[in-house]
Amino acid sequence: MEKVVINATKRTVIGKQVGVLRRAGKLPGVIYGHKMDPVAILMELKQSTRVLNTTTSSSVITVDLDGTEYAVLVREKQRDYLKNLFLHVDFQAVSQTEKIRAEVKIEFVGHAPAVKDFNGVVVDGITSVTVEALPKDLPERFIVDISNLMQIGDSITLRDIAIPNGVDVLDSLDEMIILITSPAAEEVEEVTEETAEEPEVIEKGKKEEEEEAE
Hints:
This protein is α+β, with helices and mostly antiparallel strands. Helices cover 15% and strands 40% of the residues.
């Protein structure tokens, strides 16, 4: 795997003054994790954006902090969606000799013949897989080929995909990834969902201890 590097420097500016750095084309962030105290950092927005747009949550990248390299995972990305700009990034430093846990995204390739031939409806299941592995063994994504879904009722579960050596899957192998159903079954499911009470959704994520509000 090609080494991907983001250059960074230590950051002393915190709080509301961080907004000045952003307007100057800088991206603030923090590195925390393996045997180190959290370090506030500053990166070039353009270079960091190119890297962050092409890596996944299980991609191990290198942050060069004033000449010292850290192998890291991207744990949180804060983004201004109106301006399409990153605002802040949390990196977790990892050891190359210790297994880590990560979420690996699932990506589909191909076309399911059952959709065209039988007017089948695609029902998505899980979108990522929880795994544990050494950083060097972490897959960036799992590619799932759906071209073998020929009939209504055909499906792909986690058990059906190839898991690389050195990677331990922590989710149930019976988890459904994708299923082809008939249009009638889909209509019944939609009616059921409309009458069900919507659950409360709570999103959790690590936040930098210092306030980054502008």
